[in-house]
Design goal:
Strand order of the largest sheet: 4-6-7
CATH architecture of the largest domain: Up-down Bundle
CATH class of the largest domain: Mainly Alpha
Number of helices: 20
Number of strands: 9
CATH superfamily of the largest domain: Fumarase/aspartase (Central domain)
Order of helices and strands: EHEHHEHHEEHEEHHHHHHHHEEHHHHHH
Length: about 525
């Protein structure tokens, strides 16, 4: 979360957060404040809950047990214990710790729902969530525990447990410690939960939504980078940009395809390498292979899928997911809005997208390495083939990642295991879909890095011909390093390749490859 400048505060209102707000808090440590209108809405819905506390009619989550135990009436003197017991018992996660940015996104999104005034929590409970975020205290949340229905129960319960001053957390320096000690050191008073609050803190799709928003943020950069990598590969393999012409793309009017083709044209513009074989009499190739020629169609479909996922995320950001919920006219009603299906579906869809974009990237890379298909370059781009292996095994690494990504593309949302004595008999598995999408996004980053690394080497091997100005800017970025990155040397005898792949992976993930090209082309889509 370290930044050179402090990020602007994010204000949580009764309305939806923006995706950028979530990234700012989750990843960059932006402070959080609760707007006055949200504070008023929280207080108003709490008054509704308190008015029902003495009602002789049972109200789910206020005067009853939970799930399959909802038939039991709970007397008032036991309700604080009921809420504590709910959170403690549901904080049953297992496995490795979830990343800090995911936990912060989860807490912020739960706070955003509390701020809608539809959940009935006390104001100090909502303020405690903001206080933990601002203090950099991150509850320990585990990989396994959510079925993606009734919300991300176990992950959210671990967050609620920390707000109560129980369980384990990591402080702003990442030190593992008891929640009570961390809250005390930060001057935060643990929350004592009252009627309805335990349910309000754990009944949400916040974990899967947070991971969706982080993935969409990263994929925006990665798809632009995929276009840059594809353009460098087409150029380095003496391919043509004629097929990316706007009038040809308009014959199949998918919006993402047009944007991707525009990016490819911009990156390849002014290429002496391309100009060297523009004469049809000198170049006998009728058309390029699919992995080159169809890049806009694949990358464009990925963009359109992202656009759909962003629409779903926008609906979810505007939602007040809880059960029961306090309606605007003061009713307290049970509902099924906690079901994660809408989010789970697009998380799975994006894993398919990431796998296919990685797959076509690996195919473009492989063409550079095959002397029968690379149009005059050395086998494997090796300096002395036979003595040197060049980028042979870099492609193996790509292939291993792509194979893993294909397995990760198998949807989680088609699975369901009944729980809670068959009361919760159909679940979304959205949390699982989100977890595998994070692995897919990481894999795509690494696959694109190998393509950029390989294409840069090939472009330099075309000397004395020069690459396009935008491609050349990316090559210079790799060779110069800077901003914490070591220079990646150009063509030559074999070297220890893993550090170079790691460096370019960081350059891709940070957006520096994209920005290097955009310094020439202007903003890419």
């Amino acid at each position: 979360m370290t930044q050179t400048t402090s990020p602007a505060p994010v204000t949580v209102t009764t309305g939806p957060l923006s995706p950028a707000d979530v990234v700012a808090v989750a990843r960059h440590g932006a402070p959080v404040e609760i707007a006055p209108d949200a504070q008023e809405g929280i207080a108003a819905s709490r008054a509704v809950i308190e008015s029902l506390a003495e009602d002789t009619v049972a109200h789910y989550g206020i005067s009853t047990g939970f799930g399959a135990l909802a038939t039991r009436h709970i007397p008032r003197e036991m309700r604080a214990q009921l809420q504590r017991s709910l959170v403690r018992s549901h904080a049953a996660g297992s496995g490795p710790e979830v990343e800090t940015e995911v936990v912060r996104a989860t807490m912020l999104l739960r706070l955003s729902t509390l701020a809608t005034g539809r959940t009935g929590v006390k104001l100090d409970t909502a303020q405690a969530y903001a206080a933990l975020l601002n203090a950099g205290i991150t509850p320990v949340v585990h990989e396994y525990g959510s079925l993606g229905c009734s919300g991300d129960l176990a992950p959210l319960a671990h967050c609620a447990l920390a707000v109560m001053g129980e369980g384990t957390v990591r402080d702003t320096d990442g030190v593992l410690m008891d929640a009570a000690d961390a809250l005390s050191a930060a001057g935060i008073e643990p929350v004592v939960l009252a009627e309805k609050e335990g349910l309000a803190l754990i009944n949400g799709t916040d974990g899967m939504l947070g991971m969706l928003l982080l993935a969409l943020h990263d994929l925006d950069t990665l798809l632009a980078t995929a276009d840059i990598a594809a353009a460098m590969s087409v150029e380095g393999q003496l391919g043509t940009d004629d097929v990316f012409a706007a009038d040809l793309q308009a014959l199949r009017p998918h919006p993402g395809q047009a944007l991707s083709a525009e990016n490819l044209r911009a990156v390849m513009a002014g290429s002496p390498i391309r100009d060297s074989h523009r004469d049809p009499e000198a170049c006998t190739r009728v058309q390029d292979a699919y992995s080159l020629r169809c890049s806009p169609q694949v990358h464009g479909a990925a963009r359109d899928t992202m656009a759909h996922a962003l629409t779903v995320a926008g609906h979810e950001l505007a939602a007040a997911v809880d059960n029961p919920v306090v309606t605007p006219d003061g009713r307290v009603e049970s509902n099924g809005n906690f079901h994660g299906a809408p989010v789970a579906y697009v998380l799975d869809f994006l894993a398919i997208v990431a796998a296919d974009v990685a797959s076509i990237s690996e195919r473009r890379t492989d063409r550079f390495l095959d002397v029968a298909r690379n149009h005059g370059l050395n086998p494997f781009l090796a300096d002395d083939p036979g003595v040197d292996s060049g980028h042979m095994i870099a492609q193996y690494t790509q292939a291993a990642i792509v194979s893993e990504m294909k397995r990760l593309a198998a949807p989680a949302s088609v699975d369901s295991i009944p729980s809670s004595a068959m009361q919760e008999d159909h679940v979304s598995m959205g949390w699982s879909a989100a977890r595998k999408l994070r692995r897919s996004v990481d894999g795509l980053t690494r696959v694109l890095a190998v393509e950029v690394l390989t294409a840069a080497r090939a472009l330099e091997l075309r000397a004395p011909l020069e690459p396009a100005p935008a491609s050349g800017a990316v090559v210079r970025l790799l060779r110069a390093g800077g901003d914490g990155s070591d220079p990646v040397p150009g063509p030559g005898p074999d070297r220890f390749l893993a550090p170079e792949i790691a460096t370019v992976t960081d350059l891709v993930a940070s957006g520096r490859v994209r920005r290097a090209a955009e310094a020439v082309t202007g903003p890419l889509h």
